[in-house]
Amino acid sequence: MGQPTSVLPAGKHEDHRRGKRLEWTTIGIMVPVIMLVYFALGSSQAMKTAWVEDILSLVPPVAFLVAARYHTRPPNKDFPYGFHRAIGIAFLCAAVALCTMGAYLLYESAIKLVNMEHPTIGSFNIFGRHLWHGWVMIAVLALSAIPAIILGRMKLSLARKLHDKALYADADMNKADWMTAGAAILGIVGVGVGLWWADAVAAVLISFSILRDGWKHLGQVVYDLMDMVPTKVGESEADPLPDLIQATLEDMDWVEKAQVRLREAGHVFIGEAYVLTRGETNLLSRSEQATAQLKAMHPRLHDFVVIPATTLQRQGADVGEG
Amino acid sequence: MMRLVVPISFTRAYQSFRRIALLLAVTCASCGIPRDPDGTVARVKGGMMRVGVIAAAPRIASDDTEPVVWEESLIREFAAEMGARIEWIRGPEAELMDALKEHQLDLVIGGLTQSTPWGEHVALTNPYHTTMVAVGVPRSAPLIRDLAGLEVAVEIGDAAGAYLRDRGATLISVRDPARVAGPVAAPDWKLRRWGFRNTGIVLRRHDHVMAVPPGENGWLVRLERFLREEAR
Fold first, then answer.
1. At a CB cut-off of 8 Å and minimum separation 6, what does B48 contact?
2. DSSP-derived pairing of the beta strands A255-265 and B129-138
3. Chain B neighbors of A119, CB-CB under 8 A
4. Angle, alpha carbons A123-A129-A130 (nearest 5°)
5. Tens digits of per-residue pLDDT, A219-237?
6. Crossing angle of helices A165-192 and A45-56, rounded to 10°
7. Residue A289 CA: distances (Å) to CA of A249, A264, B80, B161
């Protein structure tokens, strides 16, 4: 049983390449969009927060691509467990950035509301027409929402297929992105009809959404780094795989009882099964056979060993949220 | 290539986008968006317009008109368009701007430029006129191209002195630059009035603006439209 070399389950390489292309496309589209929004910015706080969210939406793709560069590296002498945690570290940084930015914008928007600052949006001339700047801001915000809608949908299906939480979080962020563009549009329309507070209220809502995104991802990545039991993509429900493996092992005639421990490492699972045996003959080949059989049944089972034991640890009571 | 499944055609989206934008621009020119949170336009129309005039004579003029008169005459025209009487309030900049910030004035004029530090507290219009601080020479003197090493006269206390030093010129502060025989740095309209030829060496540009209360977007856009049509 040699050291594993590639960390992607068979058949997922093409999907992973698509994911990478999708993330590059996102960066390629979002950078010009961010510049366009910057030039239309004006003095709307809501638009400013939406713009910051546009910028922050670059973080997940960059994190995904950086992680994609490192996490497929085979284990080496200095890093015997490989580089799976690269994704977790990238996401920890992203989540902290989101929380900080969200909190800052929330503070800034709330202050504007409390101070009753009336946003000034003037007019300008284009092609010989005299146009209120608000219309341009609305148009640019609407335009900036289109790629977020399309890319978000494409990523969502791919993330489920790849079982990639990074990609899933990115799709989630794209969704938040076009919703905040909508909120900013409402804020500017509100200012247009003479409601000075509409802009600041929209900005507060958008900051909340950024903060909530950050908080959600922070929780998720901390659980992952703490080796929480594997969960399904985008859900808090536990993955059924550990139970399945236990059942499979306990069906084998040489196994009395089995205990399975798995953790998530990017796209794959790492872990071990301790088995209480009925006899003591051929244990080595039997456990190796069982390992090979289980790995063949479950391609995502990447780094896995079956260990015969004389006693099993007492399984702790259910902890966490379940 | 990646299978980019795009549910809409971009050219069609662009066309309908343009159509919607045009429609919005046309219909909403008449529907009164943007409106004022404080209702300035509605109050001024057929009523009173409170105009603050910064006391010191500002450095601005269209050709040879007296500086402050030009801005005031623009506002008289604007008030006529709005059917409003004008109440002129003359005072120092700090007082007028404070009153404007608190919506106790409708408008402040008097040599304000886009770089005014009050821009954070009140709403500034788009620039409606640009003046330049330039170097001029008397009609009899030859034109110059470079300031380095030259002696250039400037009125005592004029900021142009600092710009001159940056260009490597030697500065002579005088009380009355009009009587100097060599190159002089001053606002372009003053050079014209003194009978100097403009050398085309521009030291600074000043984009002139007017100020309205913050957030009175309907009022601001009205004034901006007027200035665009009248002040060119």
1. B84, B85, B86, B87
2. unpaired
3. 215
4. 25
5. 888 888 888 888 877 777 8
6. 170
7. 11, 23, 96, 90
Tokens of B42: 């509605």
B151's tokens? 């002696």
**CA within 13 Å, CB half, B75:** 25
The 10s digit of each residue's pLDDT in A185-204 is: 999 999 999 899 999 999 99
Query: CB B36 to CB A130 under 8 A?
Result: no
| pLDDT tens digit sequence for A121-143 | 988 877 777 889 999 899 999 99
Query: Residues A146-154: what's their mean pLDDT?
Result: 89
Write down the pLDDT at residue B6. Answer: 46
Nearest CA to CA, how far is B53 from chain A (Å)? 22
Alpha-helix residue ranges (DSSP H) falling in B31-152: 40-44, 67-82, 93-101
CA distance B215 to A196: 7
pLDDT at A315: 58
Neighbours of A113 (CB within 10 A): 16
- What are the residues facing B53 on neighbouring strands? B90, B109
Report the alpha-carbon distance of residue A49 to residue A109 in Å, rounded: 9
- Residue A262 to residues A73, A241, B62, B84, B210, Cα–Cα distance (Å): 21, 9, 80, 79, 69
A5–chain B Cβ distance below 8 A for any pair: no
Spatial distance between the Cα atoms of B22 and B13, rounded to a whole number of angstroms: 14
pLDDT value, residue B123: 94
Which pLDDT score, from 0 to 100, does residue A320 have? 39
Cβ-based contacts of A117 with chain B (< 8 Å): 214-215
Question: Which residues of B, range 111-170, sit inside 8 Å of A by Cβ?
Answer: 123, 125-126
Closest CA in chain A for residue B10? A146
Residue B138 pLDDT > 60: yes
Residue A118: list chain B partners with CB under 8 A: 37-38, 213-216
Residue with tokens 């005039």: B53
- Max distance between CA atoms of chain B, in angstroms, equals 77
